[in-house]
Amino acid sequence: TEEALQDINTASELADLIELRLDYINNIKVSDIETLIKAKARPVIATCRPKREGGRFTGSEDKRVALLERATDSGAEYVDIEHDVERSLINKFRKKAGTKIIVSYHNFSETPADAELKEIHQKLAGTGADVVKIVAFARNITDNLRIFSFLEGVRTPTIAFCMGELGQISRILAPKYGSFLSFASLEKGKESAPGQLSAKELLNVYNFRRINRATDIYGLIGNPVAHSMGPLLHNTCLREEGLNAVYLPFKVEDLPSFINGFKTLNVRGYSVTIPHKVTIMGLLDKLDPLVESIGAVNTVVNRDGKLVGYNTDSTAAVKVIEDGLAKDGDTLHGKKVTIVGAGGAARAVAFGLKQKGAGITIVNRTESRAETLAGDLKCQYKKFGELDKLNTAILINCTSIGMHPNIDDIPVPANVLRPGMLVFDAVYNPPETRLLREAAVRGCRTLDGVKMFVLQAAQQFELWTGRPAPLEHLERIVRTKLAGTQ
Ligand code: NAP
Predict the structure, then answer these.
(1) Is the Cβ atom of 101 under 6 angstroms away from ligand 1?
(2) What is the pLDDT of residue 97?
(3) Which end of the chain is less enclosed by CB atoms within 10 A, N or C?
(4) Which residue, 347, 342, 344, is CA-closest to 365?
(5) From the CA of 362, how far away is ligand 1's center (Å)?
């Protein structure tokens, strides 16, 4: 009870309503309830969820009803009652003046089909509920679409969303589709259902209070997406530019059905990450010419319903290097560039630099991949073992060597680094890799991967909105976040 009192206090600073989960309070006594309800500075929903509906209450039904009754008698504005209780219990609470009834249905294994959702809603609304609550579980990201279209068709105040990581977007978009409320945890680790975001994340990352029916949607397509910095960066840009839009994480397994299904939401733009950068090309209406040569898309723009693919990894890397050279009045044209790596990042960087007239050499551990990329670029390639004879003006690391946690690894022998060489590392975690440290000691100019990472996001934002992104602010966010993960 003591801990609950503290939590009520904290919750009052974040939330519009507080759900008091009586089933989460150990050994709760009926007499404690009045103390808890009286402490509220916000309207309260009293819930005492039994195990059968996914809660923790294992006591008798009489005790459960007694706890809820004491809560409503003490002034709880809402009481949440499960759909499968005796109708007489619902009627009992309906007679209590000043208390509204939420009749709830939970499905922890799937999202019911459209017709079934309507049927459940009709049944719950028929009990005389003030608010109907239908909570499903998302097995696929497209399950959220059923919830959105269902919400748009109901008249009774209704709470509806999907649980689970794949259902998080339905919690964030609750105000857009008219859900009566959305639940958030008090802090990370205090979730009362799978997929719940913390209140601070909902408010500070997703700008929840700004979301309404007219809010545009952007998002990141990938798998996994849970640790991406994209939502923080893009939602910061959207807020600072005063745009009515939100950027969401889309964890996508089946890409074709996602792209097709989400057309109904008219998503304004996507970032694309592993593992979908190549496969998405075949699902778009148009590709930027640079994308056709690189063979990968990291950005999609919705232009009047047509999806157009771009690659800002490429343009961002080129800009970072050009800006680095420009400090000494230099340009890329005719420069000798060695790229270590032949994966997705190397392809994007190499094609961008080639367009600017650089002379490129590819070096990669798996020689056949170096040969293929060099063939596509019509440039030279070398064996990994030949790196000790390096003769280049610009050296770029596009491998994951040196990336957290293997921070002592270096992609080239340190003695090949010469004064005046420009060394760019695409790795951004950590920002200062061993390669960059050794390069600085030997008098090279250095550029880190954070600049590219921030710029590729900023260029996406510009492609979507036509507005410049707040670059310095974004760079600060990324560097602070990365400093916290070391
Ligand atoms: P990828 O497609 O998987 O390619 C990985 C590359 O690293 C391949 O060339 C691979 O060589 C090489 N590699 C990996 N481990 C190695 C090792 N132990 N020894 C030698 N070579 C090794 O990955 P990617 O998407 O190109 O990403 C590469 C790096 O760039 C990652 O660290 C990523 O974080 C970074 N990146 C940064 C940005 C940014 O905005 N700053 C953007 C994109 C990527 P093999 O061909 O022999 O396997």
Answers:
(1) no
(2) 87
(3) C
(4) 342
(5) 13
Averaged pLDDT of the chain: 96
- Per-residue pLDDT of 317-330, as tens digits, reads 999 999 999 999 99
Where does residue 89 rank: exposed (0-12), middle (13-18), buried (19+ CB within 10 A)? middle
Say whether pLDDT at 486 is over 60: no
The CA 380 to ligand 1 mean position distance, Å, reads 19
**pLDDT value of position 420:** 94
pLDDT tier at 306, thresholds 50, 70, 90: very high
Best residue among 315, 365, 409 to mutate for probing ligand 1, ranked by most atoms within 8 Å of CB: 365
**Residue 29 pLDDT grade (very low, low, confident, very high; cuts 50, 70, 90):** confident
Task: Name the pairing type of β-strands 299-303 and 269-272.
Answer: antiparallel
Q: What is the pLDDT of residue 485?
A: 67
What is the 3-state secondary structure of 399-415? CCCCCCCCCCCCCCCHH
User: What number does the ligand 1 atom closest to the CA of 406 have?
Assistant: 18
Quote the DSSP letter at residue 185: B
Q: Check residue 204 and report its DSSP letter.
A: I
Which residues are 159's β-sheet partners? 133
Handedness of CA 456, 460, 463, 467 (dihedral sign): negative
- Helices 471-485, 230-240: crossing angle, 10 deg rounding: 150
The 8-class DSSP code of residue 241 comes to T
**Using CA atoms, how far apart are residues 145 and 104, in angstroms rounded to an integer?**
20
Nearest residue to 20 via CA among 125, 31, 5, 29: 5
Token pair 């009834």 in the structure block, residue = 101
CB 23 within 8 A of CB 63: no
Amino acid at residue number 427: V
Which residues 6+ apart lie within 8 Å of 360 measured at CB? 337, 338, 339, 350, 353, 354, 377, 379, 380
Q: Can you give the pTM of this predicted structure? A: 0.94
pLDDT tens string 394-453? 999 999 999 999 999 999 999 999 999 999 999 999 999 999 999 999 999 999 999 999
Cα dist from 208 to 12, 185, 197, 249, whole Å: 16, 14, 11, 15
Answer whether 103's CB lies under 8 Å from 91's CB.
no
Q: Sign of dihedral through CA atoms 22, 27, 29, 32?
A: negative
